[in-house]
Specification:
single chain; 235 residues; alpha/beta; Uracil-DNA Glycosylase, subunit E
Length: 235
């Protein structure tokens, strides 16, 4: 994954050039190539590894939501954390995210799980690990992606102003522990999965808090209401 071979939105390509030229990324590329040559099916497809960055240039970032791994089922992952392709059943964690949005903002739950509408407004939907093997959760942890996404978060922390970090669950909270809370708004809550949502995710009010903060800093709020038809989202 040299910086000359990666197809990536230009502001991120420039900001992360040092990462792409580093040995760990070369090792990660070799690992992924070997996996594919060995007949393993990798999600998401290669053109969508960096979809979160492509849709949300660094200068546009207003909110960061951190996930852990891509969904490992066929047809689910497309490069944005918590999001699934149109027509795919809404995952349980996203169902709970929609429930909290309804409580917080009065927004009726969408009937799809396609979140590109958020990403195009400046919500960086970033997984910690950007690839996974089909049917094998966490198969690509510890291969280098975590170091890369740490660098992404660090760039946002250092180069952006007045960003909201929504850190759901202990993993996300550890990963972004270095974020400067004097310049950004850091919101913490349990993970929205069915195992933990009732321990404080429900009622956290993060969506209204995010918009209140953005407006207090002179930034436009996020329209969290998703289009009824995901085809209405510019692809």
């Amino acid at each position: 994954m040299s910086d000359t071979s990666v197809s990536l939105e230009e502001s991120w390509k420039a900001a992360l050039a040092g990462e792409f030229s580093s040995p760990y990324m070369q090792q990660l590329k070799s690992f992924l190539v070997a996996q594919k040559q060995g007949g393993k099916r990798i999600f998401p497809r290669g053109s969508e590894y960096f979809r979160a960055l492509d849709l949300t240039p660094i200068s546009s970032v207003k909110v960061v939501i951190l996930g852990q791994d891509p969904y490992h089922g066929l047809g689910q992952a497309h490069g944005l954390c918590f999001s699934v392709r149109p027509g795919v059943r809404i995952p349980p964690s996203l169902v709970n995210i929609y429930k909290e949005m309804q409580t917080d903002l009065g927004i009726a739950p969408a009937r799809h799980g396609f979140l590109e509408h958020w990403a195009r407004q400046g919500v960086l939907l970033l997984n910690s690990v950007l690839t996974v093997e089909e049917g094998q959760a966490a198969a690509h942890q510890g291969k280098g992606w975590e170091r890369f996404t740490d660098a992404v978060i660090r760039k946002v922390n250092d180069e952006c102003e007045s960003v909201v970090f929504m850190l759901w669950g202990s993993y996300a909270q550890r990963k972004a522990a270095f974020v400067d809370a004097t310049r950004h708004l850091v919101l913490r809550a349990p993970h929205p999965s069915p195992l933990s949502a009732h321990n404080g995710f429900f009622g956290c009010g993060h969506f209204s808090k995010a918009n209140d903060f953005l407006q207090s800093r002179g930034r436009s709020p996020i329209d969290w209401q998703l289009p009824t038809d995901p085809q209405d989202i510019e692809m």
